[in-house]
Amino acid sequence: MYGSSDELLNFERLIAELSAGFIGLEATRIDGAIETALQRVALALGIDRCSLISVSPWTGRIETTHSWASPGSARTPLLNIAESNPWGLQMARAGHPVVFSRLDDLPAEAAADRATAERIGLKSHVTMPMLVAGRLRGGLSFGALRAAREWPDELLGRMRLLADVFAGVLARQHAEQQRERALDFERLASRTLGALLFAGPQDEARVITAGLQDIARFLGADRATLWEIGADQRYRRTHHWFADGVPATEPWSPDELPWISRQLTGDSLARFGRLDELPAEATADRAAMQGLGVRSLLAVPLTVSGQRVGVFSLAAVCTECDWPDELVPGVRLLAEVFATLHVRRDGERRERAAAAEAALWREQFAHVVRVHTVGEMSAALAHEITQPLGAIENYALAARRRATGPAPDLAKVVELLERIVAQSARAGDVVTRLRGMVKRHELQAGEIDLERIAAGCIELLRGECEQRGLGIELQRQGALPPLVADEVHVQQVLLNLLRNAMEAMDGAPPGAPRNITVRIAQDPPGWVSVQVTDHGPGIAESELEQVFEAFHSTKPLGLGVGLAICRRLIEAHGGTLRAAQHPGGGACFTFTLPLVAQER
Question: Fewest beta carbons less than 10 Å away: which of 198, 230, 407, 577?
Fold first, then answer.
């Protein structure tokens, strides 16, 4: 039986070694490191199999993602854990380990789990749940196939510590995957929104249905529906997409789904990944969802001027589906545009003011472009944030060791905590700089400092410039008089031009300068001009105007709307935006804005 003091001490050393080895490990090497770690754990414990079970943060699917088995033993087979081990899953979700030395140790309610163990040859078994922020993210399993064995309490305690180590690794891996998937979703949402915002009345229904289909398939949903509130307060479908074989849904009233209706009041949303997540007061809603075959639901209200006009819902019927927090802002953004579509349709029916509606749509789309721009920058920004987060993790681990040692060094713990605070502030600064970009915004003209805005944009792109080996030089020609404009819109235009210049530099000819120039001057009189010059391949004379057309893009994944919306934003201020060839090679984009004295 494993459990002598020397064996436990060796196992503790192995845990510390594995924990240290995972710190700072590149994301691409995590899977291989997990496989190696499982083998070392199994050999150290003298067991036949060690496996890592993961809960997908996107779909909620539970499956064995990593496994090691001794020679002559089979790896853990692919199982539907919810059906093969329902009792064990219930225990894990409650944070309790699943432990049995013999099959007869299992309680009567674990009959399905016992049958599974017999089928795959398990004689003794332990599964330690892995929780992250109180949520089940997987389990670390230890199995004996050749003979039954005991699991002393001292060993179980150290197994839980090991599971915590793997939980941290899994959380980090999930975070990497979530960032990439969230970026993919932002791109999908941006393409969908771009198509919606430029669709004519005759194409609107087709474009909406196609967008619902793309969104539902990406998120693993089987139904995507837009609901509109009728005069009788019942919700009726206006647009929908259902997967093959999934039945349609009928109109419903708030009385039939009282809990969901209350959740949708105001700016809240209704969300559950499993029916058992619904609270006790949602009995009627649970029964209705079961009748409709819905296993998971995400519903976002469509509101206009604070009034609810409908609902955008995604439902999973075939399998349970989680709705990660990272995707909720993108779904909300889609709901905002769907709500705006409702406003447009209603405005067309009632022949309301077209000018006011056009201004609303322009701002909606400017917001979409800002979100898309931040999405494209996420890799570089994530690099800036990852560094302080990695430091925070290391300092926290060091502080825990100092605090729990035989002679706690409280002075050192305080020092480490102060370092954690400093690194947190550093990461927070990066996030704060993004808030102004992704926040909803209406035109607000005021006196602005153009040089400060330009410097802020350059700082925001600093990390991406370092990765590309580029420099950005800011030049100011003389003193600048007061300028009245919308700061967020000017920042958006300048950031778009700078990123285009950076991407153009990827195709610069050999020997070309690796820098971009931003020149601000009062030129011509009565106007302020901002000029962005690169040394890339340049733009053909015939395309100098074509680049400002909607959906014209030279980038493989580009929306082709960035420059079009930038010209609209500048023209809304009474200015101009033009492109030209740079005499020294490359392209030059210049926009002008009128001074206070020349305000129109």
Answer: 407
